[in-house]
Write a sequence for this structure.
């Protein structure tokens, strides 16, 4: 919640000054020229002046502002609510929301006019909501907000006073991830992947005679009544796997126009990582996150549950692109163990990320690379012919590196939203456990 920096005061408006001037001149002209009709004309203005003077507010309201949702997902709407204390004879309130990067007011100009009614007076405060929409993931600010008030007949004006901007955290939007293939190498007794051994799970295995320790809810009454002995249903255990999501945020290419426009490589990277993490966490798998960035490096250990999901999204939301002089020093994956599925999300501009992915694959780790440099991302425009030639050469080298790593068995999938990894994970699951060949 934010308060106003200053309280302002009730000042005379130009409309009130004009009314005073017209009334005074009309009265003087009526006396000098002996025209009673002029007095009749200015009498209504005189009544308004008297009324306005009697209803002049004697104090200024206290102003506070807050967001109904300080944490939102990009594309979602929230409200910036301005609360002003009740002041007698304050008739109209105006709220104007200043333009802010990646936050759009609705209506677009962000101005709202509120007429103070009996409900406001009864509760002792006026609440003026202004709709705002988050356009891109990250940490942004809403406002600042300007608030002003008017007395009856617009005679006295208070403000505008300024309320400090309100911080808002915008989480990346997931893109309806729809992978139906199981993750490879399940290990822990949690999750939705069927194990090869019996245990507590959701997938039917067989019907067998009752044993001490079996739960009563598993009794199969049809078989028990037919044979005269208790029988129960058995199931396969549900298992999980460790999915290590790695985000390469060293570089950002293209132009970002928010959730409704064009996306940069970092937009695709962050949204893809959020979608992958959400999918596997909903399956009950353990998910870890590693962000490679020279400015906002981050490491989140494996975990499950809603709180862990929220932590991953908030970490992705504060990711900033920055190159590192020696990227190889920051590419180590300490949490990768046997049976881990590594999902590397990168624009693949630097060869260091692919080199690390190939090294992991040679040591028996299942690795999937998501290419965030997809169709629709505009490459950088180079005015220098030499720089343009160097960029084309780098793109040719990038194509060669992608072919080589695919020949080593590491799938590279362009991020296309829902179902991008379905076929890849299905193939990895059919391979069975991979054997380590090195240290």
């Amino acid at each position: 919640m934010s308060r106003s920096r200053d309280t302002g005061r009730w000042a005379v408006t130009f409309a009130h000054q004009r009314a005073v001037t017209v009334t005074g001149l009309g009265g003087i002209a009526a006396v000098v020229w002996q025209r009673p009709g002029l007095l009749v004309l200015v009498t209504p203005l005189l009544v308004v002046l008297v009324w306005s003077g009697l209803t002049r507010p004697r104090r200024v309201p206290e102003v506070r502002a807050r967001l109904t949702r300080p944490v939102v997902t990009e594309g979602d709407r929230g409200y910036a609510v301005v609360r002003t204390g009740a002041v007698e004879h304050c008739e109209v309130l105006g709220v104007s929301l200043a333009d802010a990067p990646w936050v759009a007011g609705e209506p677009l100009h962000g101005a709202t006019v509120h007429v103070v009614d009996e409900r406001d007076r009864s509760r002792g405060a006026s609440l003026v909501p202004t709709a705002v929409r988050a356009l891109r993931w990250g940490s942004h600010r809403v406002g600042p907000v300007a608030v002003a008030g008017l007395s009856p007949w617009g005679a006295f004006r208070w403000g505008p006073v300024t309320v400090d901007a309100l911080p808002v955290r915008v989480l990346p939007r997931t893109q309806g991830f729809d992978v139906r293939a199981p993750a490879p190498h399940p290990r822990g007794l949690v999750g939705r992947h069927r194990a090869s051994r019996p245990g507590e799970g959701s997938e039917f295995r067989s019907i067998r005679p009752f044993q001490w320790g079996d739960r009563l809810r598993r009794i199969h009454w049809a078989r028990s009544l037919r044979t005269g002995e208790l029988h129960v249903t058995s199931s396969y255990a549900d298992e999980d796997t460790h999915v290590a999501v790695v985000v390469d945020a060293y570089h950002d290419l293209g132009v970002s126009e928010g959730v409704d426009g064009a996306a940069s490589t970092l937009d695709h990277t962050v949204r893809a990582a959020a979608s992958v993490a959400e999918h596997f966490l909903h399956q009950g798998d353990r998910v870890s996150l590693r962000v490679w960035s020279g400015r906002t490096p981050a490491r989140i250990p494996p975990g499950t549950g809603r709180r862990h999901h929220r932590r991953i999204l908030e970490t992705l939301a504060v990711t900033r692109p920055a190159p590192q002089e020696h990227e190889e020093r920051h590419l180590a994956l300490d949490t990768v163990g046997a049976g881990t599925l590594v999902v590397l999300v990168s624009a693949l501009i630097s060869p260091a990320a692919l080199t690390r992915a190939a090294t992991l694959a040679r040591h028996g780790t299942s690795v999937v690379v998501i290419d965030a440099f997809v169709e629709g991302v505009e490459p950088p425009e180079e005015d220098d012919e030499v720089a343009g030639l160097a960029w084309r050469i780098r793109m040719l080298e990038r194509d060669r590196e992608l072919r080589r790593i695919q020949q080593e068995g590491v799938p590279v999938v362009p991020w296309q939203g829902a179902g991008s990894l379905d076929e890849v994970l299905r193939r990895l699951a059919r391979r069975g456990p991979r054997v380590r060949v090195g240290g």
Observations:
- The longest strand covers residues 188-209.
